[in-house]
Amino acid sequence: MKPIRKAVFPVAGLGTRFLPATKAVPKEMLPVVDKPLIQYAVDEAREAGIEQMIFVTGRGKSAIEDHFDIAYELQTTMGERGKDMDLLDGTRLGPGACVYVRQQEPLGLGHAIWCARDIVGDEPFAIFLPDEMMHGSPGCMKQMVDAYEKVGGNMISVLEIPREAVSSYGVVDPGTSDGNLTEVKGLVEKPAVEDAPSNLIVSGRYILQPEVMRVLETQEAGAGGEIQLTDAMAKMIGQQPFHAHIFDGERFDCGSKVGYLKANLALALERPELAKEVRAFAVDLLN
Ligand code: UTP
Q1: pTM for this one?
Q2: Which of 104, 119, 125, 132 is the most exposed place for a label (fewest CB within 10 A)?
Q3: Domain 6-255: which CATH class?
Q4: 37-47 helix and 140-151 helix, angle to the nearest 10 degrees
C-alpha cells in the first residue's frame, strides 16, 4: 500500500457566505484566534506525515502563497528588534513542499481537485477543505491515515448531524460499521431530507485513490451546476474499498459565520494566556 505523501488544498472558492470580509482577503486566511484557517489544515497534514502540499488557488488568493513564503523584511526587522521568531513557526514549508496550481474558473470542488491531477500523479492523496476546522488530538487526518493503513482504498471523514440539516451536504449511504469506520455503500450530494440515506455527512477530509482523477475528467456538473467531488467518488464505490471515518474530536464549519465564531471562542478558551479574560467577558456579556 502506497503511503499518503501528498495533500490537495482546494482554496479557489469565492467565499460568498463570508462577504464582505472575503472580498479582498481569501476565506482561508481568516484567523481563528491568531492563526489563519489554512495553517491549521497544513499543520494537521504535517502531523499525519504528509510531505507535499498542493494548493489549488484562484484570483485574489496570493496572500496564501505569501503566508507560506520567506518574509525577509519581516524576519530581519523582527531579528533587529529582538522579537520572538517562534511566532512565525509553521509558516515556512521546506523546499518543494509547496506547489500551487490555478483553477481559472470556480467550476466546483471536483473540478478544483482535478486541476491538481498532474502533481498528484499515480498515488493516493489526501484532500483538506481548510474552512472545515477539525480540532482534536491526534488530528483528523492522522486518525484517518492510521485507519487507512489497515483498510486501504478510499476514506472520507464523516459527521453525524440532525437529519433535518442534511440537505446542504454530501450524505453517506452506510453499510456495516466497525468502531470508527463504516463501509460506504453510496453517496448523494445535497439530497432532500426525505431522500437522504442517513444523517452522516461528508466533512472536509478525504483520502482518495488516483483513479478519482480519471472519473473527474468526464464528470458532468451536478448539484448547484458545479462539478461535484461527491458524484465522482460515488462512481468509485464497489470498485475499490470505501470507508467513512468518524472523527474523534470537534469540527467547526468556519465557512459559516456561526461556525467561525464558535471556533474562535472555543480555541480562545483553550489558550492559557487568553482563557481567563475571555471567559470573564463572555459571562459578563451573557448576563
Ligand atoms: P465551499 O462551497 O465551501 O466554498 O467549497 P466557497 O465556494 O468558497 O464558499 P461560499 O459557499 O461561496 O461561501 C468548499 C471548498 O472547495 C473550494 C473552496 O475554496 C472551499 O475550500 N472550491 C470550491 C474551489 O477550490 N473551487 C471551486 O470551484 C469551488
Answers
A1: 0.94
A2: 104
A3: alpha beta
A4: 40
Burial 87-105 (b: 16+ CB within 10 A, else e): eeeebebeeeebbbbebee
Nearest CA-CA partner of 270 in 242, 249, 244, 245: 249
**Distance from the first to the final alpha carbon of the chain:** 56
Where along the chain do its domains lie? 6-255, 256-287
**For the CA of 226, the nearest atom of ligand 1:** 28
- SS3 at position 6: strand
Report the pLDDT averaged over residues 97-103. 94
3-class SS at 177? strand
C-beta separation of 231 from 219 below 8 A: yes
**CA distance linking residue 5 with residue 112, whole number of Å:** 19
Please give the DSSP secondary-structure letter assigned to residue 109.
H
Q: Please tell me the distance between residue 262's alpha carbon and the centre of ligand 1 in angstroms.
A: 20
Ligand 1 geometric centre to CA of 17 (Å): 10
Q: Which residues line ligand 1 (CB under 6 A)?
A: 10-18, 27, 56, 103, 106-109, 111-112, 129-131, 255
Hunting for cell 520567506 — which residue is that?
A: 70
Question: Separation of 281 CA from ligand 1 center, angstroms?
Answer: 34
Cell of 109: 470542488
Structure confidence by residue, pLDDT tens digits, 150-186: 999 999 999 999 999 999 888 999 999 999 999 999 9
Q: What is the β-pairing status of strands 35-36 and 31-32?
A: antiparallel
